[in-house]
Amino acid sequence: MRNSATAGRQAPLIGLIVSALLHGGVVAALLITLTHKMDFVIEDIPVVPVDLVTVADRTNIAPMAAPEPVTPPPEPAMVEPAPQPDLAAPKIDIAPNVKPAPPMKAQSDVDKLIASLAEHPPPNARAGTRNIKGVGEQSAMTADLKAILKSEVYRCWSPPVGSPHPERLIVKFELFLRRDGSVAQPPQLAADSAAAVARDPYMRAAADAAQRAIYMCAPYSLPADRYNDWRDVLFTFYPADVLGQ
Amino acid sequence: MRNWVLAVLLTMIVAAPARAVLQVDVNQGNIQPLPIAIPDFVAASPGDTGASQNIAKVVRADLERSGLFKPLNPKSFIEQITNINIAPNFSNWRVLTAQGLVTGQAALQADGRLRVDFRLWDVYGENQMLGLQFYTQPVNWRRIAHMISDAIYQRITGEKGYFDTRIVFISESGPALSRKKRLAIMDEDGANPSFLTNGYLVLTPRFNPSAQMIAYMSYIAGKPRVYLFDLESGRQEKLGDFPNMTFSPRFSPDGNFVAMSLEQGGNSDIYVMDLRTRKTTRLTFDPSIDTSPSFSPDGKQITFESDRGGSQQIYIMNADGSNQHRVSFGEGRNGTPVWSPRGDLIAFTKQSNGAFRIGVMRPDGTTERVLSNGWEDEGPTWAPNGRVLMFTRTIQGGRGSQIWSIDVTGSNQRRVATPGDASDPAWSPLIQ
């Protein structure tokens, strides 16, 4: 009984101690949890200095101080297509063949056109020859020449690969060849190719590759006695065929 | 009427060619790397010899690594470039079979900056194709070299380069059972590797469009969550406060959104978070595993993987979640789709015949091509020009993982230099 009374007196004290311990435990747990969260927040991450340089200036490089020495063509006279009797400028006497307009009558549009043609012949105008071959005949007669040129130039042609639309990168180059098979002057892009090159960097890269091929594989081994058949060449390059796309 | 007939006849006579032009169609080629000569740059002022040599060396290595160029051995050069403002003697370079020639110079300026000039020459056309000038602090010479490589690459191929970029990846070390995986970063050529995190498991790092922020999944505090890491400040933050696992993050092309997966009760769906408002929108509601979202370059569509059809396949939906449809119908399983920055292809991991390979296909699912040939290749990432891919290659027999790269044509497969084992590469955009 005494023990019970003693126990009864001690019960609040024990309860207090237990309560204090429990509260202390809760606080400790909170602290531990908070500490853990703090660990997350202040995670020790080494700050890596990452180079964030902005290039101060970037412009097209200044023109060369000295004028670029242009390598003179070995045969200056051949830089322009060699004049051939059948390539003479259109005869000015074309106009006389046309019935002259009445002197006092106002010129018609056609008359003006004729007069204009006589005075300012188109740059690519050439007089006709009597031995122009028919298209079919021409193709048959020059098939071997085409095969020769094709077999020679393809070895040097490495078209740019991986462009998104290779089927659009068809490049046409017009060029004049000398009798020894060398390229007489820089190949000229056909008008449609030139327009595409001006607006599309992929097309420009394709044109560059085609031009390199034309230069690298020259001079071409072609029969000299048929020079008139292969003097003017139009190369058309089809990258998609090479890339299998 | 007579006049008109006459005019037509006249025009025909005048314009008629004297001879037919020989028309030659070239539809065969010989695809070869472009031989290019890159002599050491001219040291235009005392004290910068190192930079002038090192820049040329890095440019040579960059271009060679692309597989599209064949830099010639400098020891074979006949002509020594001493002044880049005078046209070279092209015949001296033609005999070496060089088709391109790069001449350059480096000069320290009075203000301490490094000035670098270079010219790209067409050896056969005998003209200058490109000429650029850069100023920077001398310590940044390597970046200048990469920018020169990019400029040459773009001029020759028609598309932007990828040399002035970085790769984030997971650096792996330690035994298989307690593998330490740390977030690491390096230049595209493997130079300047650094660790960004230390101690926590991290996965799937992805760059934002400015290349200054990385999203990734980390097991910080034991819970997998998506975090953002700011490269400039080194600060990282948790992306959102979701009750369950978030993973597989990917930025939108404008950098304003992050698409990611959120797992709930074994089902994962794709969500997108607006980084400006931190508002989250759920995009998929299917009771299946939808994950690995990747935006199209215009930001209007998202490709992702899902097993809703019975096996893991590639799907596409609009950026608002509408019009979800399957696009991969090929053999095996297909996952981890990544839309090319160029928009023309989707790269993915193909699992078939017991192997994992990297493949590409058009966004409509057609013209699928398998590119790589490893035993376990997975997790492709695109170069910013959409021309080259990197991926993780796990070596058979538990011999670790490596990062490899491959051209989109399937050629030029080569290992990327990393410090130790590495996985999960992510290619940055071109650094601004």
Report on the structure:
The complex is a heterodimer of chains A (245) and B (432). Chain A has helices at residues 2-41, 94-97, 109-119, 135-153, 191-199, 201-217, 227-230, 239-243, and strands at 57-60, 171-176, 188-189, 232-237. Chain A is mainly α and 245 residues long. In chain A, helix 5 (191-199) packs across helix 6. Residues 1-7, 32-59, 65-110 and 121-137 of chain A have low confidence and may be disordered. Chain B is mostly beta strands and 432 residues long. Chain B has two domains: 34-157, Rossmann fold (3-Layer(aba) Sandwich), CATH 3.40.50; 166-427, Neuraminidase. Chain B is 12% helix and 42% strand. The model of chain B is unreliable at 13-17 (pLDDT under 50). At the A-B interface, strand 1, helix 3, helix 4, helix 6 and helix 7 of A face helix 1, strand 1, strand 6, strand 7 and helix 4 of B. Strand 1 of chain A pairs antiparallel with strand 7 of chain B, so a sheet runs across the interface.
Keywords:
heterodimer; A: 245 residues; mainly alpha; Fusion Protein Consisting Of Minor Coat Protein, Glycine Rich Linker, Tola, And A His Tag, Chain: A, Domain 2; three-stranded antiparallel beta sheet; 8 helices; 7% strand; disordered N terminus; B: 432 residues; mainly beta; Rossmann fold; Neuraminidase; 2 domains; six-stranded mixed beta sheet; 4 helices; 31 strands
Order of helices and strands of chain A: HEHHHEEHHHEH
Mean pLDDT of chain B: 90
Strand order in the sheet with the most strands of chain A: 3-2-4
Number of strands of chain B: 31
Distance between the termini of chain B: 67 Å
Give the number of domains of chain B: 2
- Which blocks of ≥5 consecutive residues of chain B have pLDDT under 50? 13-17
N-C termini distance of chain A: 104 Å
For the secondary structure, the number of strands of chain A is: 4
Task: Characterize the biggest β-sheet of chain A.
Answer: 3 strands, antiparallel
The rounded Rg of chain B comes to 26 Å
* Helix count, DSSP H or I runs of 4 or more residues of chain A: 8
CATH topology of the domain at 142-245 in chain A: Fusion Protein Consisting Of Minor Coat Protein, Glycine Rich Linker, Tola, And A His Tag, Chain: A, Domain 2
CATH architecture of the domain at 142-245 in chain A: 2-Layer Sandwich
CATH class category label of the domain at 142-245 in chain A? Alpha Beta
Per CATH, the class of the largest domain in chain B reads Mainly Beta
Strand content of chain A: 5-15%
Which geometry of chain A do the CA atoms define? Answer: rod-shaped
Helix % of chain A is 40-55%
CATH superfamily of the largest domain in chain B: TolB, C-terminal domain
What ranges of chain A have pLDDT less than 50 throughout 5 or more consecutive residues?
Answer: 1-7, 32-59, 65-110, 121-137
